[in-house]
Amino acid sequence: MDTELLRTFLEVRNTRHFGRAASNLFLTQAAVSARIRQLEAALGVTLFVRERNNIRLSGEGERLVPHAETVLMALARARRDMSLEDPSAYPVHLLVRSGIWTPALQCRLDALLNAQRDLLLRLDSRQSDVIARMLLDRAADIALMFEPPGVPELECAAVGDLTLRLYSSRRRDSVQRALAGNYVYLNWGTAFARFHSRRYGEHAATRLQTNMVEVARDHILKQGGACYLPESQRRTLADSGLHTVPDAPVFERQLHMAWHASAARRDVLEGLAEGFSGLRI
């Protein structure tokens, strides 16, 4: 299948508009429409539902998205690998779970790049389910996550810990007041959701839910409120005016590096995992 068809499909999906997709791809709108029809004919499905002043993905289109992204990422990686002047160099595609990037991680990354001058690294953030699929599809080499996938094809190594505490914009806040006063639910994944449900049930009056740490933090700084944030940022959070709620339950979870069991250059991946050993987030 022509990969340009997949590229066009993803652009229409991103813009939700054939005209804007055509402009971004430097094509005519007729050419974009023709490519989508060709892809639909090849797959035998309808990928977009065309409504008045609106275009949305069909169910089949939603299912095609991760496959299209995987194919294009694999192709881009193959081109990059083939273009390397040094054939012994091994570029590593590292994924981190969305929302867990902190100054502590930045320091480890900088130290790794300074210590390993020949390390070629690509770093992206993804959700946990996408990370597992990309590792299985060989679209990425290694990932940092705190919910290691229970998949036999993937190997995991514990490298550190994530600790989340309840922070509030109000000094000496009680748990009850923190949960009732503009509480933001920061989505830290399935394990955190279970922890939160067991500890609080339906008592937390959540006005905002998000998986973006910056959004949650900035919101409670400006509007007042509380949410669970990484303990490793306590000094920065304190300087900005956020305080721990002393009696609130603490969420703790191991951090893992995961990679495919039959991955090439396992020594490089294991060395990368060792470089993150002892990490505290």
Q: Number of helix segments?
A: 11
Distance N to C terminus: 43 Å
Shape: globular
Give the class-level CATH name of the largest domain.
Alpha Beta
CATH level-3 fold name of the largest domain: D-Maltodextrin-Binding Protein, domain 2
Query: What do the pLDDT scores average to?
Result: 86
**Strand-and-helix sequence, N→C?**
HHHEEHEHEHEEHEHEHEHEEHE
Structural class designation: alpha/beta
Main beta-sheet annotation:
8 strands, mixed
Portion of residues within helices: 40-55%
C-alpha Rg (nearest Å): 22 Å
Strand content: 15-25%
Total E-strand runs = 12
Please tell me about this protein's structure:
- With about 280 residues, the chain is α/β, with parallel strands linked by helices.
- About 45% of the residues lie in helices and about 25% in strands.
- It has helices spanning about 5-15, 20-25, 30-45, 60-80, 105-115, 130-135, 175-180, 190-200, 215-225, 235-240, 265-275, and strands spanning about 50, 55, 90-95, 120-125, 140-145, 155-170, 185, 205-210, 225-230, 245, 250-260, 280.
- The strands form 3 sheets. Strands 3, 4, 5, 6, 9, 10, 11 and 12 form an 8-stranded mixed sheet that branches. Strands 1-2 form a two-stranded antiparallel ribbon. Strands 7-8 form a two-stranded parallel ribbon.
- Helix 5 (about 105-115) links the parallel strand 3 (about 90-95) and strand 4.
- It is globular, with a radius of gyration of 22 Å.
- The mean pLDDT is about 85.
